[in-house]
Each structure stands twice: as structure tokens, then as C-alpha cells.
Write a structure and sequence with these properties.
Length: about 475
């Protein structure tokens, strides 16, 4: 009898390891190079993770912008190494891996190529939890045969109640989500909130649930345990030497904590320790980017805003010799958020709210100077805010202009062929066109440098030659 109950209760919890994406994005400004990933891939593949998150988020941009690496090539190399563990990526809905909405044809082609090159699970979110901004990516991912993880961003506000989380999750299920992710990018998810939302989803939506949190406030491991008690299927962790602070809870801690419980992960601590050892050494190479705090950040709990935003404010204000205004700026953030209808603070809404809050304080008058992003936000071009925006502020920002009604991407012209034409003979793979469609300047620079390396051609001379002889000067 006892044995039978045990069998019924046993539900292995899966772990998604984020070391190769979110962990180094959160701790090392996303700077980890592919060459530092590949030597450990075989060992990571042997662990038996539910999946490994290795692509998307800021990694794409950073590869092109700072590392002179082809993000697509990184993906292919990782796919070669991870023979059995599914590769997972983070996709910002219509923003893909960028900071603005892209046209539908670019979204379709990008998602297809991501899957072609090795991605199996795509976690799709929108900063405003507006399902319309996720529609196209969902459709493309389904079509490409990927597992679609519908994501709801977690935030704290008067309108983000259980009803909101249930409502959005149900819409995502209707759109075809294979699983749900509760995404706590700021690390403010309390154990109780996590329990309540996961339980609600398990009861009312009925899809597998994955929890994503950050250790910033020190609550994430507790939130995971409560979420697991409520029925969560998978949790996001990073290898210990790349965990804690603004990264995820440690793989090893969660594995050990669940040993001997009905949720035992079954993962090998011995093997994880070897991997941790490897990353402990790798991390040292990136010391100049490593700003991780060894202690939890109480300001994150107090202001309920992501730690990354707070450190951005500190460096911006320092630059302008206005660090004494920090407290005022942090106090202004919730007010701007309220004016904007309580957007969750995640890329790109965190940047939009953050810069406006700083402007409001530094100019001495609220909305005296308004960023273009805030104008577009009030025009409805980022999507539908969770709550109505403040009408007074709206009038101050866009006057009598009427906000758009339709899905924001409906107002964007197709972009793929335009990108192809602009890139001319510079691309050697379809993926280059996509890199260019997303980040024109960075991609062009990267592709030019690559070509220069391959051909030994001085690019400035080559560019001149191309203008003189437009017909196919470059090797295609
Ligand atoms: Co994250």
C-alpha cells in the first residue's frame, strides 16, 4: 500500500540549466564566449537536465556587438555538442532578441532558422503580457515544430492579481502553448505568490509549468520549493559557480534539497561539482564584467524593481555627478509605472520606464522631456498596457493623437527583402540577412570584418571597389 502511494506521489522535477544564457547575462554582462562553453558541453549533456537555455535574450546582440561572434554559429556548435539535451532559447515575442517590434516576415524567418539550427524549446514572452505581441512567434514556432513555452512575466502591482495571471495563461494555452513559464525577471517572486500562481495554473489551465526566477532578493530557492509543492514541473537553475546574486538558484542546491522527496531530480551531484569547478575558472576570465554582489539586494524588495535597473541608475547618475538623486529616481519609478498602466519591468519596458523616471527627476519637471520610446508607448506601439494609462500624462506626451487599436506589428512593413537588398553581396547564409534585419549596424560591421579576415581584403578599399564595380565583387 505504502509503495503504491509512493509511486503515485513521485513526480520527478526537471531542471533547466541557464548557465550558458541567463546566468552569464545576469552576472557577466552576457560576455561569455563560445570557446569557453564548448569544452564543458559534453559533461553538461551527460547530467540529464530537462533542457539547457543557451540562446536568445541578450546573447545574440552581444555576440555581434562585443564578441565578434556569429550567434548562429554558436548555436550550431552547441547543438553539435548537446547530443541529447534539448536546447532552449528566450524570445521576446515580436521583439525577437532585439529591443523593438520586428515585421512579421522577419519574425517567421527568424524563428524558423532558430529551430533549423538546433533550438527545441522556445520560451516566448512579451514585456506587457500582451498576447497579441506573442501571436506571430507562437505561430512560427509551432509551424517549425518547436515546443512553445508561453510566458507570463511576474510583477507586483494593483492590477497583477491572480485573475490576471490566470487570464493571460489561458489565452496562451488557447494560442497553442505546450507549457507555461512564470517569469520572475526581477527576483521578487515570494514563496507564497509562487505557490498561489502555480497552483492556480495547475488547476485551471492544466499545462506543465516551469518557474524562472532570479536570486537577487534571496527568495528564489524558497519560491521554487513552494512552487514545486504546488505542482511545478521544471525550475530554472544555474551551476553553483555561476548562480546566486542576480543569476538563478544553484543546480546543486535544488538537486540536494529535493533528494529523498517525491520530487527528486535524480541528477548526479558528483558530475555537477565537476561542471561547477570548470565554470569557477572560466568566470575569473570575465572579472572585469563581474559585478555580482555576494549579498541579496534589499532595494529590490523595497522598490520591487530589477537589480539591473538599480545598477544602471547608479552608473548613469554617477556619470552626471548626480548620484545624490538616486533615492528620488528610485521613488519616481513606481509613479512612472503607474502612469504607464503598470508594465512589468523587463526588456524593453524596464529601459523605457527607467530613462523616463530619471528624466522626470533630473529635469525637475515630470514629462517635461519625453523619450521617443515613451511617446510610442502612449501611441500603443508597444502593445496594450496591463491597466489604462494616466489620461493626463497621455495628453502631455502625445496631445490629441489617438493611440493605435490594432496589434502593433500590423503597422510595420515587411523587412526581410529590404534587409537582403541592403546587405547586397555581404551575406553568405540566410542567417546573415536575419542578423542584419535585427541589428543592421552591428551585423554589417561584423560581416564586413569577417569578410576582411577571410579574404585579407582591406574593407574600406573593398567597399570602394564595390561601388565602382557593383556586380559581384565579393565572394558570395
Ligand atoms: Co531571467
Amino acid at each position: 500500500m505504502q509503495a503504491k502511494n509512493d509511486v503515485q506521489l513521485k513526480k520527478k522535477v526537471g531542471i533547466t540549466d541557464t548557465t550558458l544564457r541567463d546566468a552569464h547575462q545576469s552576472l557577466l554582462a552576457t560576455r561569455m564566449k563560445t570557446e569557453d562553453m564548448l569544452p564543458i558541453v559534453e559533461k553538461m549533456d551527460a547530467v540529464g537536465f530537462h533542457s539547457v537555455e543557451v540562446w536568445g535574450g541578450a546573447t545574440f546582440d552581444t555576440c555581434l556587438r562585443f564578441l565578434s561572434e556569429d550567434p548562429w554559429e554558436r548555436l550550431r556548435l552547441l547543438k553539435k555538442g548537446f547530443k541529447k539535451t534539448p536546447l532552449q532559447m528566450l524570445l521576446r515575442g515580436q521583439n525577437l532578441v532585439g529591443y523593438r517590434h520586428y515585421p512579421d516576415d522577419v519574425v517567421e524567418a527568424f524563428v524558423k532558422k532558430a529551430v533549423d539550427n538546433g533550438i527545441s524549446i522556445i520560451r516566448i514572452f512579451d514585456a506587457l503580457n500582451d498576447p497579441r505581441n506573442m501571436e506571430k512567434a507562437f505561430e512560427a514556432a509551432k509551424k517549425a515544430g518547436a515546443h512553445v513555452q508561453g510566458t507570463v512575466c511576474y510583477t507586483i502591482s494593483p492590477v497583477h492579481d491572480l485573475e490576471h495571471y490566470a487570464k493571460v495563461a489561458k489565452i496562451l494555452k488557447d494560442m497553442g502553448a505546450d507549457s507555461l513559464c512564470l517569469k520572475d525577471m526581477a527576483g521578487i517572486l515570494s514563496p507564497k505568490a509562487c505557490y498561489d500562481i502555480v497552483k492556480l495554473w495547475k488547476e485551471e489551465v492544466g499545462l506543465p509549468v516551469q518557474i524562472h526566477s532570479h536570486y537577487t532578493s534571496g527568495m528564489a530557492s524558497m519560491a521554487y520549493l513552494k512552487g514545486i509543492e504546488a505542482g511545478a514541473d521544471v525550475v530554472d537553475c544555474a551551476i553553483s559557480s555561476m548562480s546566486l546574486s542576480s543569476s538563478q538558484p544553484p543546480d546543486e542546491t535544488i538537486v540536494a534539497a529535493l533528494q529523498g522527496t517525491p520530487w527528486d531530480t535524480g541528477l548526479d551531484l558528483e558530475l555537477l561539482t565537476e561542471i561547477a569547478e570548470y565554470f569557477r575558472e572560466v568566470r575569473k576570465k570575465y572579472a572585469e564584467f563581474d559585478k555580482a554582489s555576494p549579498v541579496p539586494d534589499p532595494n529590490v524588495l523595497r522598490y520591487q524593481i530589477p537589480g539591473g535597473m538599480i545598477s544602471n541608475f547608479i552608473s548613469q547618475l554617477k556619470e552626471q555627478g548626480q548620484l545624490d538623486k538616486l533615492r528620488e529616481v528610485l521613488d519616481e519609478v513606481p509613479r512612472v509605472r503607474k502612469d504607464l498602466g503598470y508594465p512589468p519591468l523587463v526588456t524593453p519596458s524596464s529601459q523605457i520606464v527607467g530613462s523616463q523616471a530619471a528624466l522626470n527627476v533630473l529635469t525637475g519637471e515630470r514629462y517635461k522631456i519625453v523619450t521617443n520610446e515613451v511617446k510610442d508607448y502612449f501611441r500603443g506601439l508597444y502593445g496594450r498596457p496591463p491597466a489604462p494609462v494616466d489620461p493626463e500624462v497621455q495628453r502631455k506626451v502625445i496631445g490629441d493623437e489617438k493611440p493605435v487599436e490594432k496589434r502593433p506589428a500590423d503597422y510595420i512593413e515587411p523587412g526581410l527583402e529590404k534587409a537582403r537588398a541592403e546587405l547586397g553581396h555581404l551575406y553568405t547564409q540566410e542567417e546573415d540577412v536575419l542578423s542584419y534585419a535585427l541589428f543592421p549596424q552591428q551585423a554589417r560591421k561584423f560581416l564586413e570584418e569577417k569578410l576582411a579576415r577571410q579574404t585579407g581584403v582591406d574593407f574600406d578599399l573593398a567597399e570602394k571597389a564595390r561601388q565602382d564595380h557593383p556586380a559581384g565583387y565579393y565572394p558570395a
